Amino acid sequence: MSFPVYILSKLQGCSMRPLAPEALGGAHALWQRDVRLLPAFEPCRNEVYEGYATSGGPGCGAVFICDGVGSSLDAAHALHAAGELPVWTSVLAVSQQSGRGQMRRQWVSPAGNIYAALRFPAASNYPDSLSSLVAGYVFARAFEMCGIDVRMKWPNDLLLDDCKMAGILLEDRNGALLVGIGINVAHFPRADCLREGAAVPACGLAARGFDFAPFELWRQLVDRAFFCYRNEVLRFSEDGLISRLEAYLAWVGRVVMIHGSDLGSCPGRLMGLSHDGALRVLLSGREQVLHSCSLSPIS
Length: 299
Fold this sequence. Notes:
Elements lengths: L4 E7 L9 H4 L4 H9 L4 E4 L3 E5 L9 E4 L5 H10 L8 E4 L5 E2 L5 E2 L6 E7 L10 H15 L5 E3 L3 E4 L2 E11 L2 E8 L30 H18 L6 H10 L7 E7 L2 E10 L5 E5 L2 E5 L3 E4 L2
Parallel strand pairs: 1-4, 4-5
Antiparallel strand pairs: 1-3, 2-3, 5-8, 6-7, 8-12, 9-10, 10-11, 11-12, 13-14, 13-17, 14-15, 15-16
Helix pairs in contact: 4-5
């Protein structure tokens, strides 16, 4: 294991529940499995945080594990403010007190799932408006490399068999682009617990027969997302990138129900993406571009 791993008990500028290596395995049976795979930790302390660390100093690919934090994004912003969050470094929360999703909706966060925040590279060969889709794409590819076939629900969900398995939220603050991602590993909300009008039902990996522990899966996903970004995203032309994003977009070519646009709720055929990442839909025989809406499949 060449990357450093940190378990945080304190972090400047961020409230959290103190965590120690011996307590990590008690959070959930899946975390107990993770602990058995991690190398030995030694106490560590600097001006920014206290906790425990494996060998190696902070650097690209490091993972900070914490618990009882408001959200993994809060911890990531605090680490960035202190200069401790290089690109591709991430925070993995065992649980969250006030996780957030699209439209600032609260995300229920029991131990056993993945609640992570990753510092993502700033857009380079693509416009900023594509960043959310690019993040969704590299994680969709990463899941695919782990044997899990997912598709992107525009603009920020990952679907497994048309059920929401993960949600993605981007926050750009003080020069750092952070990707917050919640992945249903051990738990997922029942239909009666979803917000009214939810476009699709939820699902979890364990319930679908996939056997992963949170840290084990997160480390694999980050490694593969980095590979895809470097070897695929950065090598695509603008047209090539749009085409690749469309290949992983759910329901392309299908008639879907469109909600929340200026058109109200109406059916339309999903055609693909515009060059700024908006949706191209066919409505009454005419293609239109939508920058804000929600989609749901029509059976």
